[in-house]
Here is the input.
Amino acid sequence: MAPKLPPTYPLEHSATTAAGSQAPTHHAPPRGLLRWLLTTNHKEIGSLYLIFSLIMFFIGGIFALVIRAELFQPGLQLVNPEFFNQMTTMHGLIMVFAAVMPAFTGLANWMIPLQIGAPDMALPRLNNFSFWLLPVAFTLLLSTLFMPGGGPNFGWTFYAPLSTTYAPPSTTFFILALHIAGISSILGAINIIATILNMRAPGMRMMDMPLFVWTWLITAFLLIAVMPVLAGVITMMLMDINFGTSFFSAAGGGDPVLFQHLFWFFGHPEVYIMILPAFGIVSVIIPTFARKPLFGYPSMVYATASIALLSFMVWAHHMFVVGLPLAAELFFMYSTMLIAVPTGVKIFNWITTLFRGSISFESPMLFSLAFVVLFTIGGFSGLMLAISPADFQYHDTYFVVAHFHYVLVPGAVFAIMAAVYYWLPKWTGHYPNERLAQWHFWLSVIGVNLTFFPMHFSGLAGMPRRIPDYALQFADFNMLSSLGAFLFGFSQLLFVLGVVLCVRGGKKAPAQAWEGAWDLEWTVPSPAPLHTFETPPVFKRPTP
Amino acid sequence: MSGGTYYVPATSRWPILGSVALGIMMFGIGMQLVYDASSIIMLVGLVGILSVMGFWFRDVVRESRGGLYDTQMDRSFRWGMGWFIFSEAMFFAAFFGALFYIRTFAVPWLGGEGEKGISALLWPDFVPQWPLMNPPDEAVVGPRGIFSPWQLPLVNTLILVTSSITLTVAHEALKEGHRKICRNWLTGTVLLGLCFILIQGLEYYEAYAHYGITLEAGIFGATFFILTGFHGVHVIVGTIILTVMLVRVHQGHFAKENHFAFEAASWYWHFVDVVWIGLFIFVYVI
Here is the structure.
């Protein structure tokens, strides 16, 4: 029998098809709440990601302030140790998985199609799915705080057996929530990678892409490579807790150290997932406000790729004191130090871009410059921690807390804020209030350093992390840290105010909102219309 | 590179419904595991997810057959499926990595090997071996025996390898336009998949009934079931996908040169096959 074949693959839209009702891409979006629930538009989904991330940033921030309030003075004042542990755990989980990562994904959603001249993301419905999984996941995660026995209390790294044998009953819900968030990350990353590889405007080669696109391409690869490993390890936890397996229990022949290996095989690339897009943002903003092309574009690309590859072979530097064989201590020490090379390439390229530039200091530039300086401090303390014998002293002290907060707060978070101030004119059609932004910047810089710089000293003096009480000699440093934390936390209200005011009005921005900005997004009007580049633009290589 | 007619679908209700259904299912699983609640919440979520997938794929099939997709869209699907399979590979890599770590380091160290040898102090009488029949602690009862790889596992290996070949024949036939041949060989592939599932079920029964290989039987049971279990789930999903493809071939879908759904299903099936080869070697034979 001859089956009836479908019409052969026409290239033009057809309104007379089975899917005809869905064919037109231009009909007015549904109004009200439904519009946001059902949207497939990369700009709307990008906004959803950013708003979600901002809300979670404040929730995670409140948890941090509970921690700092308790640590303001030695002794137990405000919360009991059990709740304190839940706060450190939830603060970490929310900031990593619900604030920083979705913020970068939101920026990717908004800007990657605009920067490569694509009409939308490659798989728009999947994009919507990736976003709406997040509120579901984090509602479930936050609900564990109200469950009998309390929420997760074993730190964001959830080491077994603390997270298996000795864990509260809500841990199973924590695992399931993390599974949903992981699915969201993987699907989002697949979408981004397909968009970048397949949707570039005609004429745009890979080496023509703005650095933000490059860093996200590599980040997406990291996400797809390691989020499934996280899914694997939390599944093993789920089995150990609920089905009597012995993956992380030596009694049955398993090994709790196995948990750490698997977790950090995910966890170390994960920290680069949170910093590579920040590198991309800074690499886009600094040339704009120095009014010079980025110095060493190809070396920036290769450095990013090197960092990503190295990130797969350094994981055990988080485990120097767990009892590794000497060969492993040495291997992971040297491989970790190797990362300083490509990272140094980046720092020097940014500085060289500034060299003899015609620099102006608008808020995006201020945040980017602070990023370069303060991230470098975090990088150097990372080098100190990489020295295995020295790490025996630093391990699990506030020095580690100082290190990773320097790379994550004035690193990743400052880059996100720089990006928001940089692209707000494109999103809203208005410039943000510069005066307000500068206040926000300076209060944030002071707050961040006041919070985290003293932690280096309390850590080197031996103050352990994740405890609600401490010895008297750490009192001064902790009081400074707490003051700084509240200053930083409340300064972020200025950020919200600035964004809200900018959405509602302000100085009108032209298509090219910044004098030195040359990427494709500045060729579309400000605010960017709902649909852009439906006919792909012809990409012209900028001539230096 | 863009051809200028990239299809951006209008709003869709499936993603949000899918998210909510997944949330309900996860919540239901948690309630059942932690509080022994009935499985009804989980089942509601599961049915929700399956329905959403059905409707979502129906929309995609309609759009594709309506000719809304150009070659650029085809490439998006290819990249999407390719990277999805890569993520699946990394998922299995975590379990294989755990198996290698346990066998190479953890179990020998428990027996006192290695320069640290600290964990050997916990159970001084423990003698390391693999498969681990004698978990260190008396509280954990090890397996009584293990399968020979050259019986059911070998049969299953032959079945899966054969199914990969039959699927390739079906695919080649589709490309040549021999739809009836395609249908027959695809039917064969689905039947082989069902055989595999059946035999794996039989093996699990034997594991529990005769060999004492259980989830609670120490690290051998744990690694055995997590690797073969997730592989088995993938075979079941793959068989369902191939069955859908069979129905679509029957209904006259797929052109000679444009049938990515079929191709993606075939990629997935070959991937599952490759994982089994790894399993057969490292879980059963060595």
Q: What stands out?
A: Confidence is low (pLDDT under 50) at residues 1-25 of chain A. The domain at 38-523 of chain A is CATH 1.20.210.10 (Cytochrome C Oxidase; Chain A).
